[in-house]
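dumping this here so i dont lose it again. seq + smiles for flavin-adenine dinucleotide
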Amino acid sequence: MLLASVDYYRPETLAEATETLAGSEDARALAGGQSLVSLLKLRATRLDLLVDISRLEELRSVTNNDDGTVTVGSCVTYDELEHHEKLRSTHPSIGQVAGATVDQQIRNRGTLGGNVCHNDPINNFPVLAVALDATMHAVSSSGERDIAASEFFTGLFTNALETGELLVGVTFPALEEGFSVGWNEIEIGEAASRAVAVVRTENGSISEARITLGCLPVPTPRPDTAAALAGVGGSEPEIAEAVATVADGIDFFPHDADASSDYRRAMAPVVAKRAVLDAIGDDDG
Ligand SMILES: Cc1cc2nc3c(=O)[nH]c(=O)nc-3n(C[C@H](O)[C@H](O)[C@H](O)COP(=O)(O)OP(=O)(O)OC[C@H]3O[C@@H](n4cnc5c(N)ncnc54)[C@H](O)[C@@H]3O)c2cc1C
């Protein structure tokens, strides 16, 4: 289906972009266009104006900060994240997740900011941002504010930005000493189940862990499962037992074309276990 008629504007500066967005309820930022243009073609959303922020220099850098954190501009593409030399050594999970995102065409255009702002449950970066305890930086014509990733995702396809606000970047903390990150997902058509594990091991046992489930309206940390993992040895059966109740109390999506809610519930402990094994360097589980 062809795109419905919509005005297009490419601002030269971030200030022009935020002023334009503040001036119209029916204007929307256009980043990589990989989700928004599809929605417009499907007539699932209607807009008067696309404000193309994809080439704004202020949004296109990756900055390794002195405190070990890294700030990624919202319009940095997945391909740029995958191939960023410094990021690969300081925050390898970001480039790995970017490199595993769909296909090369989408990786050339899709952006970190678009991925998190769209908050499609199939998107990779909302769950990674929450798992890594990232901070989201928002700017509007009236000021700036920071939002914790855990508060940024407010529901299916929604986020905490207000009309006229742009996400300008995301800061990921340095991983604390001894921690590593594991990722696992099950794809059936689209991703049906996904988990991220951030785990510290000492003398062959897990001393601390954080588990976050994705493929849900909002990325969901599982503190009870994390507590159950503390002190557990690194064997597959021990980890499987500790994560067995990771899906308890979660409302999974009703049956859709890709998977039933029962299937998603059954797979949550599987991806959680595999993510922990991936984090501790044993991905045979
Ligand atoms: C066939 C297909 C399969 C896909 N599968 C996956 C997948 O498995 N995993 C995955 O992670 N992704 C997947 N995607 C989604 C893809 O990653 C998109 O790139 C992403 O959802 C949107 O990023 P974008 O830069 O293209 O944003 P756009 O499409 O340009 O924008 C998306 C939304 O975010 C808003 N937005 C964008 N940037 C900002 C900003 N800086 N501030 C405020 N609002 C902003 C826009 O206004 C719009 O509402 C898939 C896409 C397609 C087409």
